[in-house]
Amino acid sequence: MKKPIALVLATLMIVSMAACGSPKTETPAPEASAPAEAEAPEAEAEAPEAEAPAEGAAADKVYKIALLVPFIGDQSYFDTVNMGRLAVEEYPNVETTLIEMTEDKAKWEGYYLDACEGGYDLIIGGNNDAEEFLYGAAERYPDQKFFNFDYVNHVDLPNVYANMYNTPELGYLTGALASMITTSGMEKANPDKKIGVIVGMDIPAMNDFVGGFCQVADEMGVQVVIGYPESFTDAAKAKEIALNMYNQGVDVIWQVAGGAGAGVFEAAAQAGRYAIGVDSDQTISFAGQPELAKTIVTSMYKDCGKAVQRAVDMFIAGEYPSGVETLGLAQGGVGLIENEQYKTMVPQDIRDQVQSVIDKVASGQVQVLSALQDPDGWATMKEKATAPH
Asked: Of the candidates 206, 263, 251, which has an alpha carbon nearest to the alpha carbon of residue 224?
């Protein structure tokens, strides 16, 4: 594949984006007690470039948009979402507000309700932890439009548009690459046919990443080792688990643990092994720590930032839907970062095989296991894939 799959989603955008305008001063969160907005991390400089303004949008209309997340600065998931906000902030007819709600879930309902009183045209939020508060606010404010950038539990409200991502497909693709690495002659691959995955929490939404990972590994005769730090921020715990995996003979680990995943890269550097990132190009996120960045074979992503842009474009164009849309490999909603490091570290024959896997999954030739949709199948597959091969 010649370009990052993320570019595919850009071609699907219903309305093109604005190429001019300067960043605007962000307004504070609705409540005086709300935390001050943190400075955007360096990774945010990679936010997608804004393009042409949407045709048909009211020339004198300025759209006020709020993004609610617990925090930014994780060099992963929430930073990727915020990159979408930074992109639409460049539009000449858009003003955005970043509201960091803190990690205290007891306060999240108040933040959403305050946003509903803030006069925003569109409120963006969601994910597995926060979406209950988004939908609660949407029920109380039926005239307010919402976008849930990462949907898990089914709720159907006419004022909410939501995206899901085909994480089982993403897991299958990652497991295929990892299995090819561990059975290859790559420099840091050992004779053991073992791959690892560190998942933030042992919950169905997160295990949905892992069903396809285990499925393809089992198909390729490779054993999977799974670790759960039960945290998306505890890098020390993730490092401890990862080091134990590497000591067991695992030579490549996929981190699906948000900010805790930094510990996986630290362990990979210490053990002289490989790692795979998540959510965005983590060689960029960790560019200031080159000893960690050089362990990252590639990064697998859910392109929540592009999804934010896409939703805003539809909203401005007056074509805003409701309901749920799933974005997978075929739609460019999930994929693999094909940067220069990937091309340098991974031999061409493996990259060709990876592209073949992408084509087969995207075309529907491969039926991928979903831990969410088939929990019994997931339990069976997990036991099978993690057993010694």
From this structure: 251
